[in-house]
Amino acid sequence: MGKNKMHTHRHYEEENEWGCGSWLEYTMVVVLASVLLLGSLALTLFWVIYYHNGFAWREDLSKQFNLHPVLMVAGFITFSGFSILLYRICRCCRRIYVKLLHTVFHALSIPCVAIGFMAVLDTHNLKRPEAIPNFYSLHSWIGLVTMGLFAIQFVVGFFSFLVLLCCEGATSAFRAALVPIHASFGLTTFMLAIAACVTGLTEKVIFTLGNSYSRMPEEGIIVNAIGMSLIALAILIGYILQRDEFRFRAHVLIRSGDL
Amino acid sequence: MGKNKMHTHRHYEEENEWGCGSWLEYTMVVVLASVLLLGSLALTLFWVIYYHNGFAWREDLSKQFNLHPVLMVAGFITFSGFSILLYRICRCCRRIYVKLLHTVFHALSIPCVAIGFMAVLDTHNLKRPEAIPNFYSLHSWIGLVTMGLFAIQFVVGFFSFLVLLCCEGATSAFRAALVPIHASFGLTTFMLAIAACVTGLTEKVIFTLGNSYSRMPEEGIIVNAIGMSLIALAILIGYILQRDEFRFRAHVLIRSGDL
Questions:
Q1: Cystine design at A113: which of A75, A172, A198, B57 (Cβ 3.0–4.6 Å)?
Q2: Closest to A223 (Cβ–Cβ): which among B138, B205, B244?
Q3: Could you tell me if A239 and A231 are in contact, meaning their C-beta atoms sit under 8 angstroms apart?
């Protein structure tokens, strides 16, 4: 009860410190980031449904491939992006709830990435008369590195920031030391996911449109727009994470060992 | 003299605080980053000289194009990368010298980027029987955004951290507030440069090799290796910048108003 009171008090104090300009800036960047996170997924959905006839599983390989861009953007960009943003959006919940939501969002992106990965492997392996080789392109190599980093981040984060809470006092120094490393590698993983997406989009648009890409057909512009919304996200998420003012109550909770 | 003595003393104190492990880690990551910065440029040079017959200007358009990847990697990756790393490498110079070197390295990357940009415009515009359109691809759009951010960072950095030194006291609070923003956008610009490079490499390798790319010919592997060295740089530079221990003497110099 006493602890809660202190939190409420600090909360009130801190909110009062924020000027009108800070609130405006905070609202604008968080809203813009949310719009871009959902917008890039919506544009990808529009692209594959309108220009590539939607989805299927095995009965139509080209439609099965369509699952790949949509699920990868959903997992690596939309879910992961919101999972990162949560630490800035949830300004009035207890940190443990934010951490659990952060884990849930990242956990949701795992099936997306897994099914998106299987979809492209299937379309390569089942292609007739001849299977398409896997893992030859720069895009696939970047994708593999991104998935590896994502998996390491998830496992390390899960054990360090949730499981180790069982012996809270003894591990608080270790967990506090790990926070900036986890945060920095999280941002790097997000940036690599964007690099993987833009190389994938480039590959796909050249394979589909060939030389006509240079005449800027509608589909080319849509694909470029997806890529640019991802680039805008890279700039915006980088900016939001850097702004210490947007990081709510971290100093209070580090003190109370609630990392 | 007194100030110098204080610096030497703080320097000595801080070095003593670093354990053997920190020194080993610091040396390893800085050496590895330097090797990757030079290695990615060397690989790019090897690629265009060995597989695409080197350089020319206007008398041979395909050779003129070769200037584009080499100069862009030199400007946006090698020079910019070392310019960022300087703040970690120069652990015993006065901060003003580091800032001047940071400016010089970034200034050196300007002619590289400018000539690299002109080289690709020329090869597009002078192509016969028909000119190739400019700025249609996702790669070109990402490149334009990167150049824009780079230019803004350079101008803002130059005026804020060098020109405003003329009224040191009056502008110190403003300059101190700008440091994290400049640093964060600097890292983002570097990441976008890497995104521009990997999309460019993907474009070029598909236009050159076509379907044979999937059989992993030598050239494909070389291009992927260039891309992967850039991805490794993204991870490493992200890690180095995040490690506060590697940021030398910042607290001493913020106090002495030498920002």
A1: A75
A2: B138
A3: no
Asked if A103 contacts A162 with a C-beta cutoff of 8 angstroms, the reply is yes
CA proximity to B196, closest of B145, B121, B237 = B145
Look at residue A49 and tell me if it is in a domain. Answer: yes
Of A141, A180, A220, the CB nearest to B227: A141
What's the pLDDT tens digit per position in A112-164? 999 999 999 999 999 999 999 999 999 999 999 999 999 999 999 999 988 88
A23-32, A173-182, A250-259, B36-45: which is most confident: B36-45
Question: Contact B205/B84 with Cβ under 8 angstroms?
Answer: no
Q: For residue A217, how many other CB atoms are within 10 A of its CB?
A: 15
Q: Predicted confidence band at A249 (pLDDT cuts at 50, 70, 90)?
A: low
State the residue range of the domain holding A239: 24-255
- Which amino acid does the sequence have at B200? G
> Which residue of A lies nearest to B177 if distances are taken between CA atoms?
A243
Contacts of residue A216 in chain B, CB cutoff 8 Å? 133, 136
Residue with tokens 């350089």: B55
Q: How many CB atoms lie within 10 A of CB A111?
A: 13
Rounded Cα–Cα distance for residues B30 and B233 (Å): 11
In this structure, the number of other CB atoms found within 10 A of the CB of residue A252 comes to 17
Confidence band of B16 (pLDDT split at 50, 70, 90): low
Question: What does the pLDDT read at residue A15?
Answer: 52
Residue B237, amino acid: I
Residues of B in contact with A215 (CB under 8 A): 133, 136
The C-alpha atoms of residue A76 and residue B150 are separated, in whole angstroms, by 27
| Cα distance between residue B235 and residue A185, in whole Å | 8
Cβ–Cβ pairs < 8 A, chains A and B: 138
Residue B246 three-state SS: helix
Contacts of B17-21 with CB under 8 Å at 24 or more apart are B18/B245
Domain total in chain A: 1
Angle B124-B126-B127 from CA coordinates, rounded to 5°: 65
Task: Write the ipTM.
Answer: 0.89
Cβ contact (<8 Å) for B206 and A206? yes
> Is residue B7 domain-resident?
no
| Domain-located, residue A212 | yes
CATH code at A142? Answer: 1.20.120.1770
Whether A227 sits inside 8 A of B138 (CB atoms) is yes
Q: Which of B144, B199, B228, B240 is most worth mutating to test chain A (most A CB atoms within 10 A of its CB)?
A: B199
**Length of chain A as a residue count:** 259
- Residue A136 included in any domain: yes
